[in-house]
Write a structure and sequence with these properties.
The protein has 262 residues and is of the alpha/beta class. It is built from eight helices and ten strands. The chain has a five-stranded parallel beta sheet. Strands 6-7-8 form a three-stranded parallel beta sheet, with helices on one face. Strand 6 (100-103), helix 3 and strand 7 form a beta-alpha-beta unit. Helix 3 packs parallel to helix 4 (141-150) and helix 4 runs parallel beside helix 5. The longest helix is centred in the C-terminal third of the chain and has 21 residues, at 220-240. It is globular and about 75 Å long.
């Protein structure tokens, strides 16, 4: 296997699967699923999970060895730039100056689709404030380029709506973003099963972030293991280079020259 690495904000990772920490039945299941996934970057919804902002309550940090995972605080549940910026500044205080964050500013509570004007506004403020911003966005190549130009360290277009499990609905836009980007491109939202993750990687994505696909599976730990293998297989297939598609041009697997009896 090619030992190529994912580099985000100057740090190198061997796993290209990023995993969320919400929707599990308890912290024990969370820990076992993360372990099975092989992930090294774990995203945490600051407004929904306790990482110290609620003293005396169980903290997710107790289930996550600090020397094993890179935490990725996110702004899930934020609907304005100001709200997102405040949330990530709180996360930085709670995590002793931690700079790597995931920005998402939502447009409505029904679709959880990104509000791109507010996302761009928040990204600019956060980058100027010294954050390393990974950003959830639409699959619009122009907006993705604008976020990169602002200084975001990774762009994370949705494959389909958050929590929908619908997979990659627009591979062409995703490929346009990948082809132009000079920072990592990671699919964020919409993955439902292992084949979705493999397809994202085969398209050339640098990684995949998921939560619901694992946490809402009948067996989250087993699904986490499947996702790990899918991301690795998809990456290998991308690096290997698939054969060309050939409409109406069959080509036998075995040579036809020198067939016995001809």
């Amino acid at each position: 296997m090619n030992q190529d690495s994912l580099v985000i904000a100057g740090k190198t990772y061997t796993s290209r699967l990023l995993v969320g920490t919400g929707k599990y039945k308890d912290f024990d299941e969370t820990g076992r699923a993360l372990d099975a996934s092989g992930t090294q970057i774990v995203t945490v919804a600051i407004r929904r999970v306790n990482i110290g902002q609620e003293p005396g309550q169980p903290s997710l940090l107790d289930a996550l060895p600090a020397n094993r995972y890179t935490l990725l605080p996110n702004t899930a549940g934020c609907y304005s730039a100001d709200e997102a910026v405040r949330t990530l500044r709180l996360a930085r205080e709670l995590l002793d100056g931690h700079a790597l964050v995931k920005l998402e500013v939502l447009g409505d509570s029904t679709t959880l689709f990104p509000n791109m004007p507010e996302t761009l506004k928040a990204a600019k403020t956060l980058v100027e404030d010294g954050f390393h911003v990974m950003v959830y966005c639409t699959d619009d190549p122009i907006q993705a380029r604008m976020l990169e130009d602002i200084g975001c360290v990774a762009v994370m277009p949705l494959a389909s709506l958050i929590g929908s499990g619908m997979g990659i609905l627009n591979p062409w836009n995703l490929k346009l973003i990948i082809d132009q980007a000079k920072v990592p491109v990671l699919v964020d939202a919409g993955v439902g099963t292992a084949s979705d993750a493999a397809i994202a990687m085969e398209l050339g994505c640098d990684g995949v972030l998921m939560n619901t696909a694992i946490a809402s599976a009948k067996d989250p730990v087993l699904m986490a293991s499947a996702m790990r293998k899918a991301v690795e297989a998809g990456r290998e297939a991308f690096l290997a280079g698939r054969m060309p598609r050939k409409l109406y041009s069959a080509s036998p697997s075995s040579p036809t020259g020198g067939i016995l009896g001809t």
